[in-house]
């Protein structure tokens, strides 16, 4: 059922909710993958050697191709292994819209609750106070000018969202039907963080037992076949001559910014970790940007970003 080896390399860490989303999708598709453990906070020199600036977690590496953001990783996995699908035949639009809501609105309400003083204290219990301070400083800097929900408001919203999700699994095993789809993986990971990473505040789930049963069904999917890899081996794979970036498809160039292919550009997240990646714009399809960059340690790479949620700018020299 599983390949014994795989060129899919996921750079992630155990307690990262967005990484749990991808780990479960790899399991859903019965894929084998290599696991590179990355730091939770900056500095992340090995990450930046591959991404060129993007510091969020996780990202997927295939040879010299780097895929940033889990929404793009979903598309890459679907292309690689179409069955079982992430985008159900008759509900593609609603599945993507629900997933986007879960990855943003639901996620931030859940994290506001999870990292409330009680949750955060439990998370860092037994660690020196500097660990909690360093984490808070790192995430504070990532947030920049973003407005954050206050803990009580986050918990109130989270409870409402949990009830809404619960009604969706009253009469069917997964959010949109008999099988899990991209919306289930996106809605699951913030709740997984509550239940598994910050159990001190998991009482919020008790009011919706049918959602706990859905979470058990999601957890049972597993993580596929994972083997460990070091960051230096992943970088060596990127520089290996055989790992030139994959040829770009002949998808149509969609120019929404009046920036021609071949221009020097940056791409950065709209919010939360806006460190830019700079390179030459090699593709801008309907859904993604591809930048070519040369790294002193990792060689010539293609770094791919989704359009949605990212800012493309021309670098004027
Ligand atoms: N939209 C991004 C969000 C990724 C994200 O926010 N990840 C969190 C961890 S789960 C993060 O990057 N935290 C800071 C870090 O790991 O450096 C995605 O879908 O990949």
Please give a handful of descriptors for the protein shown.
Glutathione S-transferase Yfyf (Class Pi), Chain A, domain 2; alpha/beta; ten-stranded mixed β-sheet; about 325 residues; binds glutathione; 2 domains; Glutaredoxin
State the name of the first-level CATH class of the largest domain. Answer: Alpha Beta
Helix content: 40-55%
**What Rg, in angstroms, do the CA atoms define?**
20 Å
Helix/sheet category: alpha/beta
What ligands does this structure carry? Answer: glutathione
Measured distance between first and last alpha carbons: 52 Å
* CATH architectural designation of the largest domain: 3-Layer(aba) Sandwich
- Main sheet? 10 strands, mixed
Structural write-up:
The protein has two domains: about 160 residues, Glutaredoxin (3-Layer(aba) Sandwich); about 130 residues, Glutathione S-transferase Yfyf (Class Pi), Chain A, domain 2, CATH 1.20.1050. It has ten helices and ten strands. A ten-stranded mixed β-sheet has the order 5-2-1-3-4-9-8-7-6-10, sandwiched between helices. The relative contact order is 0.18. Glutathione (GSH) binds next to helix 1 and helix 3.
């Amino acid at each position: 059922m599983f390949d014994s080896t795989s060129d899919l390399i996921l750079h992630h860490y155990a307690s990262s909710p967005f990484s749990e989303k991808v780990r479960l999708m790899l399991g859903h598709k019965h894929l084998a993958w290599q696991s590179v453990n990355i730091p939770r906070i900056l500095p992340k020199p090995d990450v930046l050697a591959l991404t060129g600036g993007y510091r969020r977690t996780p990202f997927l590496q295939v040879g010299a191709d780097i895929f940033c953001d889990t929404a793009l990783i979903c598309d890459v996995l679907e292309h690689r292994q179409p069955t079982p699908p992430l985008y159900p035949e008759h509900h593609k639009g609603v599945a993507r819209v629900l997933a986007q809501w879960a990855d943003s609105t639901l996620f931030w309400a859940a994290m506001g609750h999870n990292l409330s003083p009680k949750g955060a204290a439990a998370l860092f219990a037994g660690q020196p106070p500097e660990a909690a301070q360093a984490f808070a400083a790192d995430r504070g800097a990532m947030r920049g000018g973003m407005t954050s929900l206050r803990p009580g408001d986050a918990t109130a919203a989270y409870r409402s969202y949990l009830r809404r999700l619960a009604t969706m699994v009253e009469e069917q095993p997964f959010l949109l039907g008999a099988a899990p789809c991209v919306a289930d993986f996106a809605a699951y990971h913030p709740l997984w963080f509550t239940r598994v990473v910050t159990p001190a505040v998991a009482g919020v789930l008790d009011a919706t037992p049918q959602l706990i049963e859905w979470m058990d069904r999601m957890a049972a999917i597993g993580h596929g076949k994972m083997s460990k890899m070091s960051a230096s081996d992943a970088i060596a794979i990127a520089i290996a001559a055989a790992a030139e970036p994959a040829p770009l498809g002949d998808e149509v160039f969609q120019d929404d910014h009046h920036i021609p292919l071949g221009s020097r550009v940056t791409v950065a997240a709209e919010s939360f970790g806006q460190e830019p990646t700079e390179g030459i714009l090699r593709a801008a399809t309907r859904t993604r940007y591809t930048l070519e960059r040369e790294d002193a340690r990792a060689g010539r790479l293609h770094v791919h970003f989704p359009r949605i949620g990212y800012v493309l700018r021309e670098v004027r020299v």
